[in-house]
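Anyone? Bumping this.
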Amino acid sequence: MKRFILAFIAAYIFLFVWGWLLNGVLLKDVYAETPNLWRPQSEMMSLFHWIILGQALIVFSFVMIYATGFAGGGVIAGIRLGILLEIAAIGMRLGFYAVQPIPGKLILYGSISGLIEMIIVGAIVGAIYKPAPARSS
Amino acid sequence: MNWKKFFVAFIAAFVFLFVFGFLWYGTLMQGAHREVPTLLRPEADFKSYFGCLVLGHIVMAFFFTLLCARFVSAGGAGAGATLGILVGLVYAGPHLISFAVQPLTVRILCGWIAGAVIQFAIAGAIVGAIYKPAPEDIIYVKERSR
């Protein structure tokens, strides 16, 4: 449990900083090209707790999947899980691209950064989380 | 990896994900989506992007099936559904983030989250029920003599 919480906190901190750096700084100009798709800045700030909750849900579910099906495999297993989840998410992103007028380059940048993000999240979780040793009678 | 079973499970997952997506997001939630017309492509525009929708579902189904095969090595609908619920929650996270940054309604948010969890739970159960590892991949542990 202790390892689970530690892995969750470490991965969450990374995801939060990465998300801010990517969406709040690097891609700021790309988002500005389609203002009708986004809430005004002040409205986003008033709903900021939803971002925190969303990122926490991603990390919590990720660590849960790792702990129940991949634990013991270390960093490599974490990275594998991250890649599988993110490539499936790229498929979902393509679906969104078909129905929403989101710029193609935003989908491309989002998919590349998402892959890097989940590889690092997987490596962090794989490095920190260790299954509890089996009890000897 | 039992590729024959994997392929059957992948096709079943793709068909289910696509049909469920059409029924849930395209039909049941159509009214909710119409509340935010600026966030959606016009009908004619959508038709020209239909290939992306199909490709997206193929990619999603393939890698989800691969994940199930690695996660639930012994197979089983229950274990597949459990993984599906967790995967649905991973993808529900970005929906919460989208709600904060895009002018979505609470109705759409709830529909998307419920849709993701139900869709992947059932897809996981389908894959878990179909996919079974090849006999040579199953490791038997010899019982120790007492």
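Late reply, but here is one note on the structure posted above: DSSP finds six helices and no strands in chain A.
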